[in-house]
């Protein structure tokens, strides 16, 4: 199921993770909030009341009956159907897929609420197996569609009825050259639950059950990572060493998971004839390999003027000859320590959204009026934050772990952007509402920028303003520099895995090489940092996902620059149209109304110049 996520450490963001039984864990159980009050907890009853809800069993049974009937009526017959009949078949396929999507979304959300609960794990696995078995009856449809010749398919468009589905068929046919035989495709589909899916679950349950020893306390991984932003350097160091010890003690397991999944990917990529490990992800993102290469090259070339320059300044501010890895997200001396209560965070974010667009704020308001957000802190809950779109016939849900820090306010702005995007794009329907990962970050990063700019413009104190700018720069470096570093780490790891299994020590060496290259000479990395690759879920769940954050951040930087310059008439309307488009348009079509083109090398420089400009402003204030 589709989902966008970021982890507690802003440098390691995202993936689809799943929530909790609404019948057991209701909004009345809202957790205590930093700064006082209570944090919201979602109610999944808009999907199903509980895993035992008869409506869930009825939906799965109906989907199975419908899928079998669908296969009996259409398998082997698409060639002879006219455009109107094929359009009706796709609409029926969408209805069945949405029914399955609703059930699977609920299972994912139940699991993410407490992955340590064995009952939740069994429910999630059982749901995956049932949905996989049912969807096997539907697998023929997309395979057979892709076997249609281009001229034959184009003739079916002539009547006009099929035109609505052109974007979906366009994106489906990107994978046509990589499609295997029907038997091979069915085997891969059905084995997913005992292959990649099983390794994903092992990773999730292992991390959720882990505790980290920090200063005599036993913390969850999420809570320990949060300590890496503590003002007290001794606390940061203790948390960093605790995380190292916790993951280091299980590094052979994480190495086995990583090696197995990398080999699994190599086997499938070879059969599907993808030219390199990242190509499958690029196809799914509807972006050319060359565009991603241009982004990566532009960011790597900018390491000296971005991360190297900024962290050199930060070492000076902290009075340190060298930074250690636990100093990377340390607050500045003048940074405000006050915890931001949840109601104030909501007010800040909603105010910024409303100042840009009343319609955008109206789409965001239901998330706070209704129990669509889970921000409480509790053991077993998925770390980080995500927005899960579920299905258009329902609504998205947001998961956060709200500690009350300024970065948590930005995370709320980020995930709310995803949620609003998903609501607006949902008008396109289940098959057309999903966006490639490269575009899925547009609304989230734009929401962060709106919130940050609103706060910065209201700040008159020079020292606090510098601290705010520095915090934003760090978030942008985490989103752009760190994510491209992660992408380069993955690329090297997958390339090397093709020569044989990689020892965990060697994985650590690759990780450390990339960290030194990306973060620069201001850092002196201690050996214990070599295991930090192990906690990043993207490497397990969505290989090569990470560059999408850099893509999205640079895209939004360029987009926001156009907005500030005021050179595009009706910017608000065009921006909302971009969100409503969902997956119907590709990046070139979406950016054209703003005069932007991601295939132009200057596009990436424009986005990176925004980060450099913020650093310039900090330098001017640091005299």
Properties at a glance:
single chain, 623 residues, mainly alpha, Neurolysin, domain 3, four-stranded mixed β-sheet, two-stranded antiparallel sheet, 29 helices, 6 strands, globular
Question: What does this molecule look like?
Answer:
The chain is mostly helical. Helices cover 61% and strands 3% of the residues. It contains 29 helices and six strands. The chain has a four-stranded mixed sheet, covered by helices on one side. It has a two-stranded antiparallel sheet with strand order 2-3. Strand 5 (385-388) and strand 6 (397-399) form a beta hairpin. InterPro entries: OligopepF_N_dom, OligoPept_F_C, Pept_M3A_M3B, Pept_M3A_M3B_dom, Pept_M3B_clade3. Its EC number is 3.4.24.-.
């Amino acid at each position: 199921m589709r989902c966008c996520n970021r982890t507690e450490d802003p440098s390691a963001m995202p993936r689809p993770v799943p929530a909790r039984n609404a019948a057991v864990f209701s909004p009345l159980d809202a957790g205590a909030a930093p700064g006082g009050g209570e944090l919201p907890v979602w109610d999944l009853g808009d999907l199903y009341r509980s895993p035992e809800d008869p409506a869930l069993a009825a939906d799965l049974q109906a989907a199975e009956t419908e899928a079998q009937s669908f296969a009996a009526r259409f398998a082997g017959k698409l060639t002879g159907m006219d455009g109107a009949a094929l359009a009706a078949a796709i609409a029926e396929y969408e209805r069945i897929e949405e029914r399955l999507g609703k059930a699977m979304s609920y299972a994912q959300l139940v699991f993410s609420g407490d992955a340590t609960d064995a009952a939740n794990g069994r429910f999630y696995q059982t749901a995956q197996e049932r949905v996989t078995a049912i969807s096997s009856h539907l697998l023929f449809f997309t395979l057979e569609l892709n076997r249609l010749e281009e001229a034959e398919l184009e003739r079916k468009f002539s009547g006009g009825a099929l035109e609505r589905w052109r974007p979906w068929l366009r994106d489906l046919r990107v994978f046509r050259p990589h499609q295997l035989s029907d038997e091979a495709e069915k085997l891969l589909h059905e084995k997913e639950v005992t292959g990649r899916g099983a390794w994903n679950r092992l990773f999730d349950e292992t991390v959720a059950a882990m505790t980290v020893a920090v200063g005599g306390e036993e913390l969850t991984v999420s809570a320990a990572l949060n300590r890496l932003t503590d003002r007290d350097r001794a606390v940061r160091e203790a948390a960093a060493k605790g995380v190292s010890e916790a993951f280091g003690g299980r590094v052979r397991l994480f190495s086995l998971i990583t090696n197995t999944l990398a080999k699994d990917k190599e086997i499938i990529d070879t059969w599907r004839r993808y030219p390199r490990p990242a190509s499958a992800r690029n196809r799914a993102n509807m972006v050319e390999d060359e565009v991603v290469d241009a982004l990566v090259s532009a960011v790597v070339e900018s390491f000296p003027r971005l991360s190297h320059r900024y962290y050199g300044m930060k070492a000076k501010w902290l009075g340190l000859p060298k930074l250690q890895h636990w100093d990377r997200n340390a607050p500045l001396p003048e940074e405000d320590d006050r915890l931001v209560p949840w109601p104030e965070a909501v007010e800040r974010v909603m105010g910024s959204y409303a100042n840009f667009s009343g319609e955008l704020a109206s789409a965001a308001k239901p998330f706070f009026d209704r129990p669509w957000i889970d921000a409480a802190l509790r053991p077993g809950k998925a770390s980080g934050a995500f927005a899960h779109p579920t299905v258009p016939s329902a609504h998205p849900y947001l998961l956060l772990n709200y500690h009350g820090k300024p970065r948590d306010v930005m995370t709320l702005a980020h995930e709310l952007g995803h949620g609003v995007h998903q609501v607006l794009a949902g008008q396109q329907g289940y098959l057309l509402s999903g966006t490639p990962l490269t575009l899925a970050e547009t609304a989230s990063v734009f929401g962060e920028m709106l919130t940050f700019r609103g706060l910065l413009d209201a700040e008159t104190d020079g020292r606090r303003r510098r601290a705010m700018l520095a915090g934003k720069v760090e978030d942008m470096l985490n989103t752009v520099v760190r994510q491209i570093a992660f992408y380069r780490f993955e690329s090297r790891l997958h390339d090397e895995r093709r020569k044989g299994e990689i020892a965990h020590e060697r994985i650590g060496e690759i990780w450390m090489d990339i960290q030194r290259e990306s973060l620069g000479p201001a850092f002196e990395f201690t050996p214990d940092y070599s295991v930090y690759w192990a906690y990043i879920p993207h490497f397990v769940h969505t290989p090569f996902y990470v560059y999408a954050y850099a893509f999205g951040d640079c895209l939004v930087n360029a987009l926001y620059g156009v907005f500030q310059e005021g050179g595009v008439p009706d910017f608000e309307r065009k921006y909302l149209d971009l969100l409503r488009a969902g997956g119907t348009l590709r990046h070139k079509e979406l950016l054209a109304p703003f005069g932007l083109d991601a295939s132009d090398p200057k596009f990436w420089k424009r986005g990176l110049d925004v980060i450099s400009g913020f650093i310039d402003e900090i330098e001017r204030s640091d005299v």
